[in-house]
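Supplementary Methods S3. Input chains for the assembly prediction are listed below.
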Amino acid sequence: MESVIGALNLNATLVAQIFNFIVLLIFLRVVVYKPIVNVLEQRQKAIADNVAAAEEERKQAEALRQSYLAEMQKSKEEAQAIIQQATKAGEAQAQQILEAAKAESVRIKDSALADIEREKEKAVAILREQVVTLSIMVANKVVSKQITDNLQHDMVNEFIKEAGDLPC
Amino acid sequence: MRGLEEIHKDLDFWGFLHMGHHGVVPTPIGDVNIKTLVMTWGVMILVALFTVSATRGMKVGKPGKLQLMVEEMFQFLRGLVYENMDYRKGAGLMCLIFTLFIFLLFSNLIGLIPTMMSPTADINTTLGMSLTVFLLVQVLGFKYTGGKFLKHYIQPIPLFLPLVIVEELSKPITLAFRIYGNIYAGEVLIAVLLGMFSLTATLLGGFVASAIWLAFSIFVGFIQAFIFTMLSIVYISLVVAENH
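Predicted structure tokens for the full assembly:
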């Protein structure tokens, strides 16, 4: 045994090295080990949190997307309804305008007809008077010497009557 | 071509060889290799500086480079532990596994700096750590499986006791010698390469061999630290498993 120890150069260094190693072990345990474990744990936790948060956010985004889609659908329908309403209103308005124009044209036509009638009557009356006057003047020239005032008066009346019956 | 002794004397920049008897200093607890101890303290300080600066002002959202390094290392080791044993049992061991790995890694790498030496290039260091793991395995085995753990020493028949003891003891010994052999051999080859070429030859391209070997040693340093940690996890997981 002695010879083996001598050949291997074994001595008290062995004990000292065990002691040194234990000192280093205790030092690392006290000073270094905790921070490493802590930071690794924190990182693990942070990663887990991140994954959970990402999942949560994905869900929220999905819900948001759904609500947007629903809203879009709703607004599309609303727009459709508005367009339909507007079309209907436009048609109604056009109808109204058309009817008003028709009524206006009828009114204008009527008034024009009334004017024409009035003008005609006026012209007839003037013509009648002038014809009478003209006839009297002609008759007067022809029979001025033979007809008495009495007779003339009867003749004028008769003439006026006949002239009134004339179709104009 | 110079001898190893000569090169080691040339490399003794810090004067460790002049302390005590060729670097072996008698103390109240016995003789100690002073260079190994000083280098271990250096490694401890470096580990402390590295981890403390990496863990001050840690950020969850945007980790710095150092923080990320330590975190990745920690998570890698935690993955290994959780693959091999129960979550609740593994969580308590994480600090030990992390310390083991980072200490061994820095120990392996510090020897690549000229005039420095890997604490793991001394069998005392590696054996000390593997014995620590060994004791832990025994204690945890007894704690988690109780009498069943003691019973496995005499199974299937009591005649097997010596065999099982040898089997159990072989674990820390192989663990210690594997990392010691790799790292010590690496340091020896560094010294040999330094002695092989004269200064002119080194400047004319002899440094390439050293550079390649140093690069490979970095790789070996990582691998050996990983293997030691991994095997420790496996040994522990074997005894804490319910269906032992």
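The interface with chain B takes residues 8-18, 20-25, 27-29, 31-33, 35-40, 42-43, 46 of chain A (CB under 8 Å). Chain A has a mean pLDDT of 89.
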